Amino acid sequence: MAKQEDQFKKVLSHAKEYGYVFQSSEIYDGLSAVYDYAQNGVELKKNIRDYWWKAMVQMHENIVGIDAAILMHPTTWKASGHVDAFNDPLIDNKDSKKRYRADVLIEDYCLKIEGKINKEVTKAAKRFGDAFNKEEFLATNGRVVGYQDKIKTILARMGKSLENEDLADVKLLIEELEIADPLTGSKNWTEVKQFNLMFGTKIGASADNSTQVYLRPETAQGIFVNFLNVQKTGRMKIPFGIAQTGKAFRNEIVARQFIFRMREFEQMEMQYFVKPGTQKLWYDQWKETRLKWHLSLGMGAENYRFHDHAKLAHYADAAADIEFNFPFGFKELEGIHSRTDFDLKAHEEHSGKKLQYFDHEENKSYTPYVVETSIGLDRMFLAVFSNSLVEEALENGTTRTVLKLPSVLAPFKAAVLPLVKKDGLPEVARKIMEDLKWDFNVFYDEKDAVGKRYRRQDAAGTPFCITVDHDTLTDNSVTIRHRDTMEQKRVAIASLKDIIKAEVAVKTWLQKMEA
Length: 515
Ligand code: GAP
Hints:
It comes from Polaribacter ponticola. It is an enzyme of class 6 (ligase). Catalyzes the attachment of glycine to tRNA(Gly). One of its GO terms (molecular function) is glycine-tRNA ligase activity. Its EC number is 6.1.1.14. The strands form seven sheets. The chain has a seven-stranded mixed β-sheet with strand order 3-9-10-16-13-12-11. The chain has a five-stranded mixed β-sheet with strand order 20-19-21-22-23, sandwiched between helices. It has about 525 residues and is α+β, with helices and mostly antiparallel strands. The two termini are about 35 Å apart. The longest helix is centred in the first third of the chain and has 27 residues, at about 100-130. Strand 4 and strand 5 form a beta hairpin. The protein is about 40% helix and about 25% strand. It contains 18 helices and 23 strands. Bound molecules: glycyl-adenosine-5'-phosphate (GAP). Glycyl-adenosine-5'-phosphate binds near residues 250, 261, 375 and 378. Glycyl-adenosine-5'-phosphate (GAP) binds near residues 250, 269, 333 and 376.
């Protein structure tokens, strides 16, 4: 646990030091759960978005993109259920005046029990050495089984109470478990209340005729309300998809874990409209396809797992998360939901407009079913960034910090470095840079010794360093150094483009999905 926390702290400071993520309005001490992407971060974020867009939109003839507005007609959110049901259970501590999510307090309590299980496992592993069988130990050790049962009972009761809107029982559970305010230790709690997560604002110049609107809490509804517009103007045939990326806003009560849970974040969503009855097939297919997309980035199959939802949202007939092994454990990265015809039917009902599809093969109209894939861009950023940050022990006894970003996503693909700032080397380096920048984002650096510059580029995540030295002036060759292997090769300037392209091209990476 301490090791994980340590790694997370390193991620936070590295993100700031190397110009990836800054706290929003930092000079005013920041705004909770709101972040800015800095000069390198904005490039990484854009590359992740482009990688998703290429795979989801441009590689599929039957998927198109849109960019709907953040502000939508307020009835949208009535129809989608967000006005009535997009709530978190909230509890205040009367002494500290701090506000918490009641379910998170209970889940954190369970995490502590899980910590005790992990301690027992570590102890037993030490005691039994090579003969230790973790699965068997978890299934048979009396104390551990007791802890597991306790977690199951607590979570089952909480789930049931939340489903039945029995908030009094949620409070009772907190009291029975003697859960205290994590900051002050006080157990003096208020009742549990539902808290709507949507940010509201007003449209209109005067108070009398202004309209209450919301900042969208998900991008999906912009797709649903445009379903027929896109289908008709694009002459789309079912099955087909509509994708979009864009900002979403949620007034999250628990603001922590850096960019994992933000109040303003970006989603990349795709709604796939299918014939009723075929949704299970498409749901399974999209689960598989989306996992392949993640795996194509080479961040380790062991770092992903599916979590199938036992308790389904009112609109879903199946749902699963792709969870990623973040520095604080496995957590949701992406959701795949079979949303039935709930959304289109609800918008039909509230708008009075027919949102049906005429199927020429079947010669009838119907409301399509929808399978949705929904991933948080910021979470994906955190997954990529935290997974890539490593400290490497070198043969000479020193360590180096390397950001081993999948090179297709790296902000800069290469850095061009003149060995010294004289003898005409900067001029040649600039010329190489001018040529490469038409195809790649390239960085120029002539400050400090070349070894120091290599380290800087390693830590910033740049896959290649190209060094121009005195030999370059006579033989038109340069040294190209690879970030991950540190291998250096002498190559012709004329071959640089091909060498870089072979490694960083979207095609090189996305083709791994087909393997
Ligand atoms: N349209 C479906 C939908 O919005 P969701 O599970 O609420 O489903 C989808 O959100 C994804 O959006 C999540 O898997 C997560 O990656 C991202 N996400 C949700 N809330 C977030 C937040 N507060 N901060 C950052 N990302 C968030």
